[in-house]
Structure formats: C-alpha cells, structure tokens
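Example 3.2
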Amino acid sequence: MSILRLCVLVILLPTFWTPSSAVRSSTLLLARSYSLSPPKTGAQLTAWAASLAAQSAADEARVATLLDAKPKSKGHHGRSFVPIAPGRQILSIPNYVARARLGTPAQTLVVAIDPSNDAAWIPCSACVGCAPASSSPSFSPTQSSTYRPVRCGSPKCAQVPGTPSCPGGVVASCAFNLTYGSSTLQAVLGQDALSLEDGAGAAASAYTFGCLRVVTGTSLPPQGLIGFGRGPLSFLSQTKDTYGSVFSYCLPNYKSSNFSGTLRLGPVGQPKRIKTTPLLYNPHRPTLYYINMTGIRVGSKAVPIPASALAFDPATGIGGTIVDAGTMFTRLSGPVYAAVRDAFRRRVRAPVSGPLGGFDTCYNGTVRVPSVAFAFAGGAAVTLPEENVMIHSSSGGVACLAMAPGPSAGVNAGLNVLASMQQQNHRVLFDVANGRVGFSREFCTA
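Structure, written as tokens:
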C-alpha cells in the first residue's frame, strides 16, 4: 500500500510499464501495466515519463478516494509464513501477490494482497467479463465439495461492501455490486475453505468472499484479491481466532520476479526488536491503518513542518498518515511535500531537470542522495536509504524523488500515504490486537 532499503533502486528494468489511464475507485485503485523497453533518450524517455505519469495519476486517484467508501478473541494463535511477490512481474498489476488455495479439493490462484481493502473477491467460472480461463484460472464452485452460498438472511450479507442485493428474499443468495478502479463488478457471496499457500492447513474452513459473476473494465486483479484491512469481512477479522489479528510483511523490490517476500500471519515469529508506534482509528474509514507521523528529516536536519500539517482529527476523519501497500509512491499533503521537496533539493545541490511523469524533482546524471527519515509517535523512526527514495531509469540517466503531493482539495487533501516503494525491504508489522504498527529493516529481495 514501508518503509524501506539500501542500493540504487532500478524499477525500470528491461520491462517496466507503458502508459495506462488513471482509474478511480471508492475504496481501491489498481492500474494495469505492460512491458516497455528501457528508456534511453528521445521517444523512449518520453514513454518512460508517460508511464510514470500513469502510475502517479493512478496513485493520486487512489489516495483521493481512500476515504470515500462508507464505513462498514480468543483461541489458538498460530503462525504461518506465506511467500509474496511483486504482482507487476507476474500479473502486470502493482499489488503484491500470494498463492491461495480455495475449495475442496483445493484450487490454486495467485491473488492480490491489499491491507487497504476488506472484502475478498475471486473470479468464478462462467464469469462474464473476467479474464479468459485460458490465460488466468478462475474458481469453480461446482468442483468444490465445501462451497456454500451465503443467504440473504445471514449476518454476513449485511457486511458486504455497499448495499446487498436480495430481490429473492432472505433465502436467496446474497449479491452485491461494487465499483473497483475503472471496473464495476457483480458478485454473489459464498463461503469455502481457504488457505494462503505456505504448506500449512486451511486458514479458514468457511471463508466468506465474493464470487464474481459479471465484470466490466480491466482494473481487477485477474485471479482475485484478499483484503487485509480492519473490517469484518477482511482476512484479519475472519481468521482472528487463528492468527490473533496480527500480520506483517516484507515487500521485495519491483524488479524481483520471485516469491522472496514474506507475509507472516500470527504473533508467533514476528520480530521481537522492532520499533512500533500506536495504531490509530478513523471511525469514518475503519479499514485503514492510521499512525501518527510527527516529523520528517532530510539528511541530518529536521524539515520545518507545522504540526497541524501532520495532525489527524478522528472526529472529522481528516488528515493524518496511513500505511498503504496498494499505492506505489508516497503521497504527502501539499504543505508537507513542499517542505520535504525544498529540503531535499537544498541537500542535493544539483540542477533540477524538467519534471517527468508527475515527479517534479528529477536529475540528469549521478547525484548524492540524502537519506529521508520518518518519525512517529512513541519514538519510532524509519530511515529510507536511496533505493527507497529515488526512482531511476534503467539506463541510469534520469533519477527522480519518488514522492509526490497528494490531492490539493477535498477530504483527502491533508492525508499522507506511506506507500509500497518506501516500504520495500522492511518488515512492517500490523498488530491490531495490541494497537500498534512496527517497522524494522529486513532484506527480502531475491
């Protein structure tokens, strides 16, 4: 949706992504991406800039709509290590992905993992508008002996995103419609055995998810998505008796094509020595993971940022900082970004070239890059090395500060989003049971 890593990050390998149109979503945004030859000069550099602009626009649209959606123990706490990989290399999507097993016998899918979304949805057989079965598997409920539809009279039906559709009364299957990115979807609610692929048993014997029937648009992850937010239909909530409302991840960098990252489920096996900050709650958008960022440093100096520009008001749901693995580049509210950008330029002391792809602090050639550090309530601080600060062309000719300003108006104008590039090669812990988020350095790129 971070916080970080060590060498020169080269996101734009021989295959980066071509321009894709910005897409909107009430809860989530995923931009489709495709391969592109590495930029060097002329038309290639223009294409690279356009691709950056597309992803930047996608991030902006996602951040602008993160708050638009209406809000919606006890037991043995287990442990599970799940391999994760960048979806860009595997499915041409910007999310990180994991293998999931659904049904009996198990059907394997590669699903997007998103901590800023709650519900899961999976393309089912005979889905109209889903990716073709020849190129991307779908789930077949009729081939699973444990699949059960969720009826309209079930409490789970009231938890679906938006408004459930029950024209057939309480005994009919619960259905719902949803706008997701540039797509709309129609799904029926079902339950089946689910596990994330790690060699362990089922995480849930009756996991509730949306079985996609009709899809328009192309912004859905082709094999589905599992939400790791804080709502009642999220993976965190549905498996709380098993994993105790605790998970963490280490995101490898985007050029990796391996499942070298890890998603750790449950309190067992989480890092003991980890910097943590209190987890905040936004009653207007309870899905999201809010934390209190108290300051930013560029190099050795604190950036002069008014406390009001970082403050979060739970009464209105405005402002504050969230951790999000679905947004690619960190977005800072206007005053915060301007202060960080100006401090960064002063430290670099090199001529700034023209803006590229929505980024306004770019350089031609090699420059000395200062570290950027985020400070949080409780004394936690995370220092970003160059690989988490700069985005480089594969030719090495152009490098840009991999951050941008957030929306200039609206409810999200004051929101700061710590995104996935700034989280790469760090362990990010979400300990909802104990009300904290943690960060520790961990290299997980193959």
